[in-house]
Write a structure and sequence with these properties.
By secondary structure, this protein is α+β, with helices and mostly antiparallel strands. The chain is built from five helices and three strands; from the N terminus they run H-E-H-H-E-E-H-H. The chain folds into two domains: 78 residues, Winged helix-like DNA-binding domain superfamily/Winged helix DNA-binding domain (Arc Repressor Mutant, subunit A, Orthogonal Bundle); 33 residues.
Length: 125
């Protein structure tokens, strides 16, 4: 299954496409974009911020992998004690991610409702 964005139009902001812990995951990388983080570091930060709730490390890893496959994050493999690890860095800042979300939605609407999408965009522009 390929990574995809799912829209919940009852929500506002990034929560339309991200769960609370997913937003915290991206924010943990956006706060220092030049510094890559391994999944354990991201997991630690997210769980500190979400306390007392806890998010599984597997959920964090799967989300990071999805974001990397969509081009939101970049993953570099490193070898260290204990084997291979992925180091995740941002390819998109928050503003670029929001534009990516908008572009993804419009492209999906254009594939399904080409004329209606064009007409609606023309009306609201």
């Amino acid at each position: 299954m390929s990574a995809k964005l799912e829209f919940d139009t009852s929500q506002k902001g990034l929560r339309m496409v991200l769960k609370d812990w997913q937003e915290e995951t991206l924010r943990s990388l956006w706060e220092n974009p030049q510094q890559g983080r391994i999944s354990r570091e991201v997991w630690d930060r997210v769980n500190q911020r979400m306390s007392p709730a806890t998010i599984s490390r597997a959920s964090i890893i799967n989300f990071l992998e999805d974001m990397a496959s969509m081009g939101v994050l970049e993953k570099a493999e490193i070898t260290g004690k204990g084997g291979h690890r992925g180091v995740y860095t941002t390819k998109m800042d928050e503003s670029e991610f929001k534009k990516f979300v908008v572009r993804t939605a419009i492209e999906a609407l254009m594939r399904s409702f080409t004329e209606e999408t064009k007409q609606t965009i023309a009306r609201i522009s």
